Fold this sequence. Notes:
The chain is mainly α. It contains 16 helices and 3 strands.
Amino acid sequence: xxxxxxxxxxxxxxxxxxxxxxxxxxxxxxxxxxxxxxxxxxxxxxxxxxxxxxxxxxxxxxxxxxxxxxxxxxxxxxxxxxxxxxxxxxxxxxxxxxxxxxxxxxxxxxxxxxxxxxxxxxxxxxxxxxxxxxxxxxxxxxxxxxxxxxxxxxxxxxxxxxxxxxxxxxxxxxxxxxxxxxxxxxxxxxxxxxxxxxxxxxxxxxxxxxxxxxxxxxxxxxxxxxxxxxxxxxxxxxxxxxxxxxxxxxxxxxxxxxxxxxxxxxxxxxxxxxxxxxxxxxxxxxxxxxxxxxxxxxxxxxxxxxxxxxxxxxxxxxxxxxxxxxxxxxxxxxxxxxxxxxxxxxxxxxxxxxxxxxxxxxxxxxxxxxxxxxxxxxxxxxxxxxxxxxxxxxxxxxx
Length: 399
């Protein structure tokens, strides 16, 4: 049986995740060398060494969740503590959290920063997938099958918005929408949810008008028109990002030879790491990153469509949508298509919380794929060729 299970793993998916993560480690080293010395006065490989430790831990966590049967996670004994821990983590950060970048979104534990909203994304995926899979028989009963699971989503997003971190809250809402659209719910209820969501957004915007539409946030929108017009102030991040992207050409300036990361491009190893990739490795490097991320997302969608278990199917679709949505928002922000939101690029950007959360998510995705392949390859064959019935003792005696 173990041999059959090992044969059922999708090794192409595992390989792409591993290669992209190692590529990200190399780019973190290249992007953070000058930043580490100039900003913190530490060794040039400071962030590289920390990311390397994160990746080693992530590999162990990934292996555990790749072997851990995902179906156990829909148990109430696991779901209830997960829900409570995510809410307590998000609530506690408002009291004990560290403020950075005008947001109180991190716990500082020694030299490591932990961002609970990263893990809240995964908690929402697991919870909504488990509950909507369990409610399949009455998924179209609005008050009983549709609304109750969304109360948890509302609490999570409210706690994240209070920090304030509207970008992460928006990503979680988009992920939830992807799961809802995949749950089998009819369009009547989906349109009801869209209407209620739009009304809630209007009320929320009016109630917090001064915070949401503050001068600083509005400048993030207006700067998109011409970031070079105010390149030393509001357009500083975006204009230097565009210079990095534009100077790379087809093959780039060469690994480690980028100029913008030398004090011009802020957060070069986190939110803007794709700009460093474009400058040093050109279109070729960016295409490699897009191919790997696209492969993971499309493979996740394929797994979700092929999996016969509703819980596994929604899990795969939710995880792949999370990776795809977050990647799209990061790339669009760095290239000036949408306002900057401070969202890291999955598997590539520096960050312990992000890489550990992705290790859990991708491990679950690989596990769902394994079970789907196992049931399709081996259980189907077993059902087609059942073993011959054992001969009864009386017949044996007569013979």
